[in-house]
Design a protein that fits this description.
Helix content is about 80%, strand content about 0%. The chain has five helices and no strands. Helix 1 packs parallel to helix 4, helix 3 crosses helix 4 and helix 4 runs antiparallel to helix 5. The relative contact order is 0.05.
């Protein structure tokens, strides 16, 4: 029986995602899952759904840290106010990068769709032009085959 590639194994994937979701770094989570950072990056590039799962797990961890820091700041821990603001700026920067990637992906899809539509319109025009030619040709042929017969010559008196 062949061995599944590391992150195609559901148990390995689950271990990695849970470690990230509870706040471990990617490197720590990879260690828990028994994979390398290179394996993680390779799978992220190859599998967009997996990349989204990683981002979701990081978002969950971020939410926990943010909630705890906010609680500490509200309780009067002035060091947490500065850390909380720093964390918030990093989060906004990350969301901005993610949004830019989504816009780029959407733009690419729109360009591909536009090219497909142009190609389809060109095909339809070519078909239409061939149909028009096909309709004209029989009429021309019919006109050429149904030429009026020559008028008979007048009869000449015999001498």
């Amino acid at each position: 029986m062949s061995k599944q590639p590391a992150l195609d194994n559901p148990a390995t994937r689950s271990t990695l995602l849970m470690a990230i979701a509870v706040g471990k770094t990617r490197a720590e989570a990879c260690g828990d899952a028994g994979i390398t950072m290179q394996t993680l990056r390779r799978h992220e590039k190859r599998d967009p759904e997996f990349a989204d799962q990683i981002l979701d797990a990081e978002e969950a961890a971020f939410d926990q840290v943010e909630r705890r820091m906010r609680e500490m700041a509200v309780a009067g821990d002035s060091s947490m106010i500065k850390e909380y603001r720093s964390l918030k700026r990093r989060r906004e920067a990350r969301e901005s990068r993610t949004s830019k990637l989504e816009v780029e992906a959407t733009h690419t899809h729109v360009l591909e769709a536009t090219n497909n539509i142009r190609e389809l319109v060109g095909t339809l025009r070519a078909r239409r032009d061939r149909t028009i030619d096909a309709e004209i040709i029989p009429e021309i042929v019919q006109e050429q085959t149904s030429l009026p017969s020559p008028e008979p010559l007048p009869e000449q008196p015999e001498p």
